[in-house]
Write a structure and sequence with these properties.
The structure is a single chain. The chain is mainly β. It has a single domain, classed as Methylamine Dehydrogenase, Chain H, CATH 2.130.10.10. It has one helix and 28 strands. Strands 3-2-1-28 form a four-stranded antiparallel beta sheet, with no helix packed on it. A hairpin with a 2-residue loop joins β5 and β6. The longest helix has 17 residues.
């Protein structure tokens, strides 16, 4: 009798629990330089949280250029941003911030928190790579094997604490020992603008390049091939992979509009219709809406599409150059 009562209790309890789903919030980092009027009340540069429609909430310091955002996979309140004056950290979801680097570290272009250990964080800068193993309390250079040291982007491998891939003006570099040393991987010299991996399919990586389109690796970054078609010679600032559907990809860059692939990078279709500017610097698939893709433009704010680029809806931040966008689940 007790087993039957327990079974009935679980039947009523678990459907209630399954209806509670986590919501992902969209954060974007922007630089306000268009439509700026001296002496007027202008939008501040920095980090924004989307509130709905065309409404955004500014978070953190005003007028601080932020180029990249990352958060701990198990704690959305723990966040790092890459900024012009260093690496900034918040432990309370953006209510307060701390500059964790010192005077030696400036012009930080990207940040990557390791999904397996949030104390391990890497930053890419104009002067090389720095890392922390204590959540930003101390930093040290990690440039052994990098030549030149200028680094644009960096991404941790979600399947391994040891592996991390970086990209810069000479190409892609791989470390298999937590950044203690680096070796070239992929075609050289091909300037790399962005790197992304798929956590559900950790062997799949994309890289956006200058005038060489998109590079694709299907073996965890060991070797790379070039995406074919109209995307092949483009300058790509940002690439992304749908986390729940690795066959769905997007890329955007200088005068490209948005390129979409539905077959894992085998073919790409370019979409330009309905966009006032074709310069794209931010991309994100919406985990809350299956058909929605977000883009950040260079000077015309944020848009989203409900049909993967066939048509676009304006989402605000007029005059903003969007440098990064990221969904954070709460």
């Amino acid at each position: 009798m007790m087993k039957k009562q327990l079974f009935l209790t679980l039947i009523f309890l678990f459907p209630t629990i399954s209806l509670v789903t986590a919501k992902s919030n969209l954060y974007v980092s922007v630089l306000i330089r268009e439509n700026y009027i001296v002496g007027a009340k202008n939008l501040p540069t920095g980090l924004y949280l989307w509130q709905g429609d065309t409404t955004w909430n500014h978070i953190g310091w005003k007028n601080l250029p932020i180029w990249s955002i990352d958060t701990a996979s198990e704690n959305p309140d723990y966040m790092f941003v890459a900024a012009g004056n260093g690496a900034l950290r918040t432990l309370d979801g953006g209510q307060s911030w701390k500059i964790t680097t010192d005077w030696r570290v400036t012009e930080v272009s990207d940040v990557s928190i390791h999904p397996l250990d949030h104390h391990l964080v890497y930053i890419a800068t104009s002067y090389g790579i720095w890392k922390t193993t204590d959540g930003g309390e101390s930093w040290r250079e990690s440039n052994n094997g990098l030549n030149p040291t200028f680094t644009q982007t960096i991404q941790c491998d979600a399947s391994s604490l040891q592996r991390v891939i970086a990209g810069g003006e000479e190409g892609l570099f791989l470390s298999t020992n937590q950044g203690e040393s680096w070796k070239p991987t992929g075609p050289l010299p091909v300037p790399v603008k962005d790197i992304i991996s798929n956590r559900q399919t950790p062997r799949l990586w994309l890289a956006g390049t200058e005038k060489h389109g998109v590079l694709i690796s299907r073996n965890q970054g060991k070797t790379w091939g070039t995406a074919e078609g109209d995307i092949q010679d483009q300058t790509i600032y940002k690439v992304t992979i749908h986390q729940n559907n690795p066959k769905l990809m997007a890329a955007g860059g200088y005068q490209t509009g948005v390129f979409i692939s539905r077959d894992g990078g085998q073919t790409w279709k370019q979409n330009k219709k309905g966009l006032k500017t074709l310069d794209i610097h931010g991309l994100a698939f919406d985990p809350n809406e299956k058909q929605r893709l977000w883009i950040g433009t260079m000077g015309d704010g944020v848009y989203f599409s409900e049909d993967f680029g066939k048509s676009w809806n304006y989402a605000g931040l007029s005059g903003a150059l969007v440098s990064d966008m990221k969904f954070i689940t709460r």
